[in-house]
Amino acid sequence: MAGSKAKPRSSDTEIIQTTSWSAGPGCHGTCGVLAHVKNGKLTKIEGDPDHPFNQGRLCARCLAMTQYVYHPDRLTRPLKRIGERGEGKWQEISWEEAFDWIEKRMDRIRKDYGPESVIFSMGTGRDISPWLCMLAYAYGSPNVVFALSGNACYSPRIAAVETVLGDYCVPDAAQWLEKRYDDPKYRLPKCIIIWGYNIPNTCPDNIFGHWFIDLMKRGTEIVCIDPRMTWFSSRAKHWLRLRPGTDGALAMGFLNAIINESVFDREFVEKWTNAPFLIRTDSGKLLRESDIRTDGKPENFIVWDSSKKEPVVWESNRAAYRPGTCKPALHGNHTIVLKDGEKVVCKTVWDGFCEEVNKYPLDRVSEITGIPKKKIHAAAHFFAECKPSSIHWGLPIDSTPGITPTAQAITALWCLTGNLEVPGGNIIARNAFECVSYALPGAEGVIKLASKEADQKRISTDKYGPFRKFIWRAQTDTVLDQIFTEKPYPIKAIWMQTGNLIAGIGFEPKKWVEALKKLDFIAAVDLFMTPTTQLADIVLPAASFLEKDGVRSWWVPLQTINKAISVEGCKPDVEINFELARRFDPNLRWKSVEELFDNILQKSGMSFKELQKKKWALPPEGNPSAPYRRHEKGLLRKDGRPGFETPSGKVELYSSLREEWGLEPLPHYEEPPFTPVSRPDLAKEYPLILSTGRRSFAYFNAEHRMIPWLRELDPNPIVEIHPDTAKSLNVGDGEWVWVENWLGRQRFKAKLTLAVLPQMVMAAHGWWFPEEEGAEPSLFGAWKSNINQLIPMGSQGKDGLGAPIKNLLCKVYKV
Amino acid sequence: MIKKKPKYGLLIDYEYCTGCHTCELACAQEYKHQPGVRGIKVFEVEQKLPNGSAYLTYFPFPTEVCILCPHLTKKGLEPACVKHCMAACMKYGRIEDLAVEIKKPRMVLWSGKQ
Fold first, then answer.
1. Is it the case that residue A2 has pLDDT exceeding 50?
2. pLDDT by residue (tens digit) across A402-417?
């Protein structure tokens, strides 16, 4: 037992402190837990009262761990397929045989087709993502795929905020401070916008959902933006109940109310954003130094000095004006002489930004979103006038192909109101101590491809700018296409880990089944047999978080996962992948898993063992990964100058990157592709808005249906229907209904509830039935209540990001 | 017939119960209950309001099965549900002490069976 040991409460029980992440509760939280272990067996699990993240609390999924680790259906031996794919006939083999066979099969494919012909697929990767990347990169493939259409979970938001700010942001719930809310450096947010998140049901993105309840108890007021009635909406000062998918329009409306009534932070706009940069009115593009001087650099921009009445150069790499002083104009048209002597009229970015914002007067926003104008106005003002305020947003932002312009608008909201990097505002979030294990959006990790050349074959980098700059995955929809087209090169095998492609993450899952069956080799790693693992050629049994060591540096704190127990036959993902990585790459940088952990933790100055003893660590003030006001102190940029890690060093209200990628540089609203507004033709047959993806308190996505204590809490696939709508459909509470659209129909149990708008239904996702037949055609009932069958692949946004998950169309009728 | 006067109970601030069901799982784990058997159960109440909108309330209800975890409280620990409550909306204690803490609306004091 390597874990930190707490004082035992009885002589024969050992209490081991560890961190819950990944297999087990499934979530992205990082709760401190105490595992009670007697004779090597887990008898009980508790929240660690001394841990700053959860302070002793623990959710239902973690408290069910005794049923999880010793579940009779746990996979405990490597299984090799002996029948046809999907036939459910398996042979138990040893780990050594499994490794040898995988090595042989994958080596052959690498020799014949190149390493890029193997896809490494993850779901919500959690602590396993780095190990998946390690294996892919050791094998030589750049094609790591997060298997959700449009990569539409979190990374689109991260990429969008990086586009504007050069870093990502999260709301400040004092998570960087050991004393949390009581630390004198912290300020309680007066207002938090909870934007599309039913937080109590999940701990998203390394935020403990109930922190917001802690803050509310201390006086924080809530603005809730959600089409569904939630715990938050009932307790919010302002509840904006928008039509699903219209978040972008609402964000533009907020900007409109805030800018036109001057309740924004003008000093911040002038000093820290690219608002004064000039845009050419002839091309609509940013005016660059190379436009006006033969020796000018294209990365430098131009502002109009309002006191000297002349253009002044902003040097991006120094993040400073040349010469030093300048009083840049925020408004007005200015005539600039270009290097060839031609004159061009330029406007400021700020004027251009305001022009865009003025396309969204509140009457129009009200019409698009369905929210009364007065309510939008009141909520926008409340948010802007409370200091500090912050915004916490959820997956619905990613659930539209218009994700990036939506997220640009929302990012502008927390910047323009002076809430960036202030205590209680939105805080730039970096991995603790800047320890990065693998390539995340915007960060380079210690696990990387051997060379830049190896990355050139990554699927979709040629098509999508963000995938060249921030997102080191292959674009999912393009991958699925390429499996069928084999262009520009064939895909021959897939390695699947931490994801359930068929019942959890893949839209149009029958297409994915067809795609899988085309491949020469499929390996899967999981803890239970699922509809997806059923289709594999080999399945490897993985360990839960209690059965392994690990490191965690995602935001804060920095901490270790400490092995508390073993389940005979199961191996931690990191060990599985390390063994194969070592075989595929004899020059692998690390000699052992511990050396790998040490390498990841290097920037913290601690080794794995040292951190394990310490339990967890928070970066001290002055570290680039600790707030506040880092842009003023020069802690964000590599050169140590004040400013941001964007191409210009400014907050880019007008995105120079989007301009470079040929996309609209300013925030705006895009109507999703399958709504009653965009497709009135389809809406005639499918009159209800279909939303999915809302969280269950019992499950993490497609997991946990086999855990009795959890299944009891949420036993059936539910579709939420408003009672008035149900009445018109002649559907009673608890009756089974078909939810149908042009892609198919699935069965759900109707829950009549005021939680949903009358014109929408909300169908639960991730449903399959572990108690049913595993072999095809059943695949554990994966074709009965799988809402993903009604969601199209291939509707990603212009930058490859986002998918219409909460704003589709359907009809509902009784079974 | 008057039974023994209860001494201990739970003060439940149901304004903050978010319906996460942690209390139910904490109870199930503590006693290794079969599915269906719980010392506490969370109810969801959707209430229409006169202004046409609605209000969502969750209420953790200690059931017939609840014995207030004497094996833990005797050691000075909290009952399993109270300890793990994600919203920290429940408190265990002497009924007289808890009664004094009712200083806000939407609280319920439950007298336990011991």
1. no
2. 999 999 999 999 999 9
Which pLDDT value is given to residue A7? Answer: 54
Q: Judge if A727 and A583 occupy the same domain.
A: no
> What average pLDDT does chain A have?
96
Is residue A720 in a domain?
yes
Report the CATH architecture of B8-111: 2-Layer Sandwich (3.30)
Which H helix or E strand runs over A416? Answer: helix A403-416
A1 has pLDDT over 50? no
Binning pLDDT at 50, 70 and 90, where does residue A22 land? confident
On whether any CB of chain B is under 8 Å from the CB of A682, the answer is no
Residue indicated by tokens 């959006």: A441
Higher pLDDT, A273 or A438: A273
CA contacts within 13 A on the Cβ side of A16: 28
Q: Are A136 and A129 in contact (CB under 8 A)?
A: no
Measured CA to CA, the distance from residue A89 to residue A79 in angstroms comes to 9
> Which of the residues A38, A55, A231 would you substitute to probe the B interface, choosing the one with the greatest number of B C-beta atoms within 10 Å?
A231
- Do residues A579 and A444 both lie within one domain? yes
What distance in Å separates the CA atoms of residue A276 and residue A526, rounded to the nearest whole number?
Answer: 53
Count up the domains in chain A and report the number: 2
For chain B, the domains span: 8-111
Q: Which of A58, A216, A217 sits opposite B22 (nearest CB)?
A: A58
Are A47 and B84 in contact (CB < 8 Å)? yes
Q: Is A213 on the interface with B (CB under 8 A)?
A: yes
For residue A3, the model assigns a pLDDT of 44
A634 reaches B (C-beta below 8 A): no
Interval A568-598: pLDDT, tens: 999 999 999 999 999 999 999 999 999 999 9
A758 with A722: CB under 8 angstroms? yes
Closest CA to A394 of A230, A630, A509: A230
Dist CA A717 CA A719 (whole Å):
7
Q: Give the range of the structural domain holding residue A446, as residue numbers without chain letter.
A: 91-153+434-540+568-588
Do you know the residue count of chain B?
114
Mean pLDDT value across residues A44-59: 95
Cis-peptide, bond into residue A557, ω within 30° of zero: yes
User: Could you tell me the CATH number of the domain that includes residue A699?
Assistant: 2.40.40.20
Is A219 touching B (CB cutoff 8 A)?
no
Length of chain A: 815
Q: Are residues A686 and A581 in the same domain?
A: no
pLDDT digits (tens, 9 = 90+) for A523-559: 999 999 999 999 999 999 999 999 999 999 999 999 9
For residue A219, what pLDDT is reported?
98
Q: Which residues of A touch B35 (CB under 8 A)?
A: 708-709, 711-712
Q: Which residues of B touch A201 (CB under 8 A)?
A: 20
In chain A, residues with a C-beta closer than 8 Å to the C-beta of B82 are none
**A131-A132-A138-A140 Cα dihedral, nearest 10 degrees:** -160
pLDDT the model gives residue B35: 84
pLDDT digits (tens, 9 = 90+) for B31-67: 999 888 999 999 999 999 998 889 999 999 999 999 9
For the stretch A412-469, pLDDT in tens is 999 999 999 999 999 999 999 999 998 777 678 999 999 889 999 999 999 999 999 9
Taking CB atoms and an 8 Å limit, are A63 and B29 in contact across chains? yes
Bridge partners, A523 (sequence order): A495, A538
Q: Which of residues 53-72 of A touch B (CB under 8 A)?
A: 56-60, 63-64, 66
DSSP labels, A254-280:
HHHHHHHTT-S-HHHHHHHBSTTBEEE
C-alpha distance from B60 to closest chain A C-alpha (Å): 14
Q: How far apart are CA A677 and CA A671, in angstroms?
A: 8
The residue type at A520: D
Residue for token pair 């200015």: A334
